[in-house]
Amino acid sequence: MNKNKIIKVKNLVKKFGDFVANDNLNFEVEAGEIFGFLGANGAGKTTAIKILTGLSKPTSGEISVAGYDIYKETEKIKRNIGYMSQKFSLYDDLTVFENIRFYAGIYGMKKQEIIDKTESLLDKLDIRNHKNSLIRSLPLGWKQKLAFSIAIFHNPKIVFLDEPTGGVDPVTRRMFWELIYDASNSGITVFVTTHYMDEAEYCDRISIMDKGKIVALDKPQILKEQYNAANIDEVFVKIAR
Amino acid sequence: MNFIQKEFRHILRDTRTLIIMFGIPIVQILLFGYVISTEVKNAGIAILDLSKDQATIKITEKLTASGYFKIIKNLNSFDEIEEAFKQGNVKEVVIFEINFDKNLENFNSANVQLIADATDANTANIIVFYTSSIIQNYVNEQNKTIKMPFEIKIDERMLYNEELKSSFMFVPGIMAIILMLISAMMTSISIAREKELGTMEVLLVSPLKPVQIILGKVTPYFILSLINAVSILAVGYFVFDVPVTGSLILLMAETMLFILLALSLGIFISTVAKTQQFAMMLSMFALMLPTMLLSGFVFPIENMPVWLQVICQVMPPKWFIIIIRNIMLKGTGLLYIWKETLILFIFTAFFILLSVKKFKIRLE
Asked: Which CATH topology does B43-159 take?
């Protein structure tokens, strides 16, 4: 098998009782790419991301993440991934630095390393003056950028983003994607779910889910040609019909 | 009108709110109705009859026949009194002096001493009052048939709490309530909060093990609760003169056990509750109210109907209150309260296992 495939999913099935949330998914994600995971609400995106991050167990299927088996090597997977959920995931009542220190701490980072990295992060996000501000007092856009930065603070091989830009204005979304590109350039694989179709265009490859199945998977450009569409939005509408 | 309809739909579709809205008041009314009674039924007493003559036997019979008392023990000497109380189920000892009947005949007067366990001041008061009434009743009956009226002098003593201070009762009770509140409610709310915020997911994705998350949550509250316990004891001691007659170390150890129990209950609640509000409601109604009503803190358990007494047996605070009352007021050692301790211990182990297991299930 190709070693560059950082996520391998073969025949993934997840059932909740009679309801099949993930119906025989097959896909691979290459190391370093930005992989977009698209689909309408309820298509099964979140279920799949939960399985890949170890929050949920599949009913059946062979899955490996970062080169580790999802059944036997969960601990190793956890050390090598980052995660940002659609719900906002920083502590409101802690300061910027306290949040960083806490999350870096649970990944076992050393004190000095945390301090050094924090400094460069504060400069990068241009929030040096807010190091000791409570998260509560920051605007949503900043919080989201910070949440992402914290999700990749421990240098994971893969970062999973579950609808990271929900409820954010277009300008902030644009800035957020710059951060994603940065991360991708530094070698982190990005696995992102979204239902903003314009964002899909930013991805290297996208998969489109519908009713628990993957119905399309390729480069955005190729999909557009294949479906004879001007943009991914049109592709999506055509597929969903 | 449309709006009202919509609101009704919200309410009717939320079974939890429904249960809380309608179930809780009913349960409360039932509880209060049954619990609040100043009557005493089948209170355990012991008799120390130094005469065993016609009069004392008659009085003893009257006591049992009344239905208020149940004779648990017949004592043979004064030395056995303390022991009887420490075992816990004897609430009062009735002592007839030597030559009781003879004294009645010769001097038209005899002495009875009533010693009550006043760690529960309420019950002690009622029991002593009932006993003296029954004895007085006997005197009145007898006096109708004889020419020379006689009297029985009753000497009442409240053991462990001479002045019948209610603070002796409420300090242990408050301790149980506060510890329950702080430990269980706060942990359950704080875990539910993580779920609401979405931070719990991030924690579960991280390399932290569930046990580590639980420990991380529980430790601060354990420490806070311990500080709380000490300050309640201090206030009790310095402000209300509630003594700690028994071993302080034993008391603290039992307190820690109880805190642990409350914490594990809190974690258990949080595995069930998805939101902070629900966690709070659940802790309030599932822990607070029973702690107050069914633990024997305010209302004596002996007076409740049998089915309610059965429920009381599974209320952890009940056992804790028994334990601390014993240690603080009676000065008993582990020897007398090992049963209660064991029960608390089993509860704790049970809930810890259950919540760790539930925590894992949620991962799947």
From this structure: abc type-2 transporter like fold (3.40.1710)
